Amino acid sequence: MASGKPTAGDGVDAAKLTTIKRDDGSEQVAYDGHALYYFVKDTSAGATTGQGVDGFGAPWWVVAPSGSAITTAAGTGGASTSPSDDSGYSY
Asked: Region annotation Disordered: residue ranges (predicted)?
């Protein structure tokens, strides 16, 4: 959920960082038109434990500051291959 205008970090194109309105009326942060989510097991800055996790019918990837998906496996932390929709992702 977004509250206020999102702030761009280093290397992020601030013009691509927006919010979108969800079906329930809440606002969600988006980058280049794509809704952003976080992985609940990533508990520190730079953590990528959720990289490549299969959830909700597809793998999930980290987004580069350019807005493109980084689709290589994470160097640390393992990715789950469980088909469960309990993927650990949230907004």
From this structure: 70-91
Per-residue pLDDT tens digits for 37-78: 888 888 888 888 888 888 888 888 888 777 788 888 765 444
SS3 assignment, position 16: helix
Q: By three-state DSSP, how is residue 74 classified?
A: coil
Between CA 81 and CA 67, with CA 29 as vertex, the angle to 5 degrees is 70
Every domain of the chain and the residues it spans: 14-90
CA distance 65 to 27: 21
State the Cα–Cα distance between residues 12 and 14, nearest whole angstrom.
6
